[in-house]
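Lab notes, practical 5.
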Amino acid sequence: MTLAALVFFAWFRTHLFAAPIAPANHPEVTHMKSLLLAVPAALVLALALPAVAGGSAKPSAEEKEAFGRLTVQQVEEGVAKKELVVFDNNSQDRFAKGHVPSAKWVKFDNVTAADLPADKATKLVFYCGGEMCMACHEAAKGALTLGYKNVFIMPAGISGWEKAGKKTEKA
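Output from the prediction step:
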C-alpha cells in the first residue's frame, strides 16, 4: 500500500470516529458520513481495478516496445549514408504523392520476409502518417516477428518529415 493511501486511511479513521459538532441526524453530518464511506470505497475500487482487468498502470517488460525510435534528422542522415532501409506504411495513394527518398511501400499489417532485406541485421525504419498514427508500430512488430533485430520507427511520420522541410520522392 502506498504512503498516500496510508495517510488517507489515517485521516479517514480520525474523522470517522470524531464527535460531530452537529446532532447525528443533522443533514450535514449524514452527508459527511456518506462521503467518508464512499471515498475509501472508491479508492479501494480504483486500486483493485487494474489487477482485476489484468493490467497495470506501468507497462511490463514484455509490453514495452522492442523497436527503437529515430528522429527525422537521424533518418535523413541514415538515408544519405545508405545505412538503413526505409519503409512507408501509409496508403499507396499517400506514398505516390510523396515519400521519404528511397522508401519502399509495404502494407503495415502484412509485412512479409519478401518485403524485407535478406540480411536480418539490416537497420530497418518504418514510418506512417505522424505521431498519432500507429501503422509503423504494427509494421515494426511484424519485422521483429520475422527475426529482424535492428528495427526502428520514425514517429514523426511523413507529416513530420514534410514539416521539417525535407525533400520527398514521388512514385
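Observations recorded by the TA: The longest strand covers residues 85-88. Confidence is low (pLDDT under 50) at residues 55-62.
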